[in-house]
User: What shape does this take?
Amino acid sequence: MTKFLAKTDISKEKGYSYLHQMLLIREFEETVEKLFMKGKIHGTMHLCIGQEATAVGVCSLLNQTDKIITNHRGHGHSIAKGTNVNKMMAELLGRETGICQGKGGSMHIADLDVGNLGANGIVAAGLPIGVGAALTSKMKELNYVVVCFFGDGATNEGAFHESLNLASIWDLPIIFLCENNQYAMSGRTDEMFNISNISERGGSYGIPGITIDGNDLFEVMNTTKEAIDRARDGKGPTFIEAKTYRWKGHSRTDARKYRTREEENYWKENNDPIKNLISVLKENELISDNEISEIKNTVKIEIQKALEYAENSPEPSIDSLENNIYA
Ligand SMILES: Cc1ncc(C[n+]2csc(CCOP(=O)(O)OP(=O)(O)O)c2C)c(N)n1
Ligand SMILES: [Mg+2]
Assistant: This one.
């Protein structure tokens, strides 16, 4: 799928900032993967390498008071919504300075100060929570919108269907953002669905559904912008299916026997969201090779500093073991 991206009229500063955010996410993910392989991070983790355009495209359009809720593959969404990378790194390394005091780990990163309602390890469980947050916004007239990120696999769960229906009948200010990365663990979407576009499911609930190239930052932004406007105008939810590709295995120890290396390379070479953005910025003379190298160096330093911050932080004390436990 070689893509030709349309000309855009974004400013140089904005282009620079989108690229910075996308490279920051990739550098974060590549770094935590290495740390994981060295045994420095416990539990499991799900990397979003190859899916950076959805996170950045959507979150760059949200205000601080708008909310996101994410799933198990949520590092990129959190970074794009403004969660501090030092605190995220400390969380992954189980340190007291982590965003959840080092007790939550990769699948529980939440940061209410920036409107990040958090990740969730239960597939599709974020959707009803997002619907609840959107209902609060409507009932209390808080005027924030909610974006709920989830995967293709989540759309075969009951919670997905219940959530879309409720959001629709109540005209809630929510955007359902499905990152269709072609796989749910080892299950290919073409084996798990008898429809070619999951967005068709929106129609069953009276919700506009649209399928887009999730690796094209500008397509993500244009579509999300319309959905946000609809939500803010009280016109209810939108269901966006962003087609993308999960570059890495599902989680830590996945040998990826269910797909070929050729398929992976095809996506990396032909539809890498970062390469796509760079080509648009260059086509429009909004960035030079020197500036790209400068951003790459900056993100390396930022993530290196995050790692130093985490490694120099203490582990949670035994005394804090029972803090924040409610049941
Ligand atoms: C209710 C539930 N069922 C199964 C699992 C195990 N599980 C974790 S992630 C995952 C696949 C999810 O696929 P998708 O929603 O497409 O997200 P992706 O991993 O591709 O980002 C499964 C089955 C779970 N965590 N929760
Ligand atoms: Mg998936």
Remarks:
- Residues 46, 72-73, 121-123, 150-154, 181, 183-185, 246, 250 surround thiamine diphosphate (ligand 1) (CB under 6 Å).
- Residues 1-5 have pLDDT under 50 and may be disordered.
- The beta strands are 67-69, 146-151, 174-180, 183-184, 187-188, 209-213, 238-243.
- The first helix runs from residue 12 to 37.
